[in-house]
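Researcher: I've got a protein sequence and the SMILES for zinc ion. Could you write out the 3D structure of the bound complex as structure tokens? I'd like something to compare against our soaking experiments later this week.
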Amino acid sequence: LNGSDSVAGEAVPPRPDLAGRLLTTALLSGQIGQAYLFHGPRGVGKMAAARAFAADLLCGAPRDGRSCGACASCRAAAGARHPDLVIASPDGMTLKIDQIRELLRRVTLRPVAGERRVFLLEDADRLTLEAANALLKSLEEPPPGTTFILVTTNRDALPATIISRCAQIPFRPLGIEAVSSLLREEEGLSPSEALFLARLSGGCPGRAREYARDPETAAVRSRAAALVDAMDELTLDRALVVADELERLYGRNRQAMEALLDMSALEAAERLRGSVVRTGQAGTWLRRVATIEESAAGLRRNVNVRLCLDFLLMSLAQ
Ligand SMILES: [Zn+2]
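Model: Sure. Here is the predicted complex with zinc ion in place.
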């Protein structure tokens, strides 16, 4: 997802956060590293920032270090057809040795348009060990004018040898309030809907936009609300029926299942905050929120969907 890709004729403004300031400092000082590691949660804007940084480095007429958005280089970079910008993404589950060999072959060539070339690796944590080893030497001693940008949501999965050769650029969630106002302004959501989806996204704008634009979101949310509404009356027999229903609906769509559990946890947390909670019920709702969050965490660790649902519904029924 590259939610905020630049279009031709429009320069991307620098991000105001730590990542943006680190990159702006590098551009203004002209001290461009050989390799950068952009890391942070999914949907936080790493790929969009990596493309913008590549455009800054390749621009023919930069202003204050930033790309002009209008020159031939910027237009080519925005259209992902710049000859000196090479982007490698996982082929299936992994970034394979053949992909890295092809990329390294291009590293040895001279830049086509200007003085600099940028090699962008998306989901770099999916490099196979062989591919990572092949990349190491080039990361350490690239030809002049070469910059690598590795992008990852899971830095811990990268070999320490790769991490240590890159300048670290941490991307953090924008924050609930910032994402909420972005959803109101750009997606036209109501304040309460915007706030809910901003919380659901963990403050990551890309994920929040994904939820806002997904036609399934409303249906999943009303399922979540129904599940939470039913909790007070949930018997063990009924719990098994609901588990079956949910497995039938979302058993083959892990992402929807994760969204369902995350939304249920948020809905339950709203009940905890709201007036629905009568004296003495706060403990019950706290336990419910914790149980749902535990199930969601299990799902993320790849626990079997059926087991997660049985655990969730039976714990809630007791
Ligand atoms: Zn330009």
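Model: Residues 59-61, 67-68, 71, 73-74 surround zinc ion (CB under 6 Å). The chain has a mean pLDDT of 90.
Researcher: Great, I'll pass this along to the crystallography team.
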